[in-house]
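In practice, a research group might receive sequence data for several interacting partners and want a quick structural hypothesis before committing to experiments. The following worked case mirrors that situation: the sequences arrive first, and a predicted assembly follows.
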Amino acid sequence: DIQMTQSPSSLSASVGDRVTITCRASQGISNSLAWYQQKSGKVPKLLIYAASTLQSGVPSRFSGSGSGTDFTLTISSLQPEDVATYYCQKYNSAPFTFGPGTKVDIK
Amino acid sequence: EVQLLESGGGLVQPGGSLRLSCTASGFTFSSYGLSWVRQAPGKGLEWVSAISAGGGATYYTDSVKGRFTISRDNSKSTVFLQMNSLRAEDTAVYSCAKVVGGGWPYYFDFWGQGTLVTVSS
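A structural hypothesis for the assembly, expressed as tokens:
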């Protein structure tokens, strides 16, 4: 099965900083990748699908890129409400594996 | 408004069984795939199983194959997860998630709050 990794596992940044999270697949998955945000005690929220398509209602400071094995989620200007854990998920074929997550907080 | 309400969790001994249910509202249930995702306490998301809109396609993560069975009753807007031969490592909050379409691609746009399954003697 294809394994998903994320880096870093956690990061701390200042409000207004540009934040980049990387997700890597052990084999190519084309652009079949989604990103989710999970705030503490809340259900996950879909941010991005097809590697770079922003889900309706998601702020434009979030963006995604990549194809094949390497993907990034970028927050262009970190806001206090972005404190959360971020997960990538592959869906090219089963199993529809999630990455281990990246915890983002404010410095 | 889309709502997904899980039930059926609880405390079960290793080797035991549980049947989880997820009842949906706010969308045309029979037109969408559904999935179960679990999250162990303090851990990340783990995809468990998925089923297509009509129920003809089902998928499982390797660790539950042969032990868990996903099914759905479109007349009752409910998806089920039958869990047998439970192990301590199955302990988690189990949430159902709505797939964006009737089948592939299996990513998820709405989630339930989940039901806690604890496997312990």
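Before designing any experiment, note the following. Residues 22 and 60 of chain B are 17 Å apart (CA to CA). Chain B touches chain A at residues 35, 37, 44-47, 50, 59-62, 95, 97, 100, 104-109, 111-114 (CB under 8 Å).
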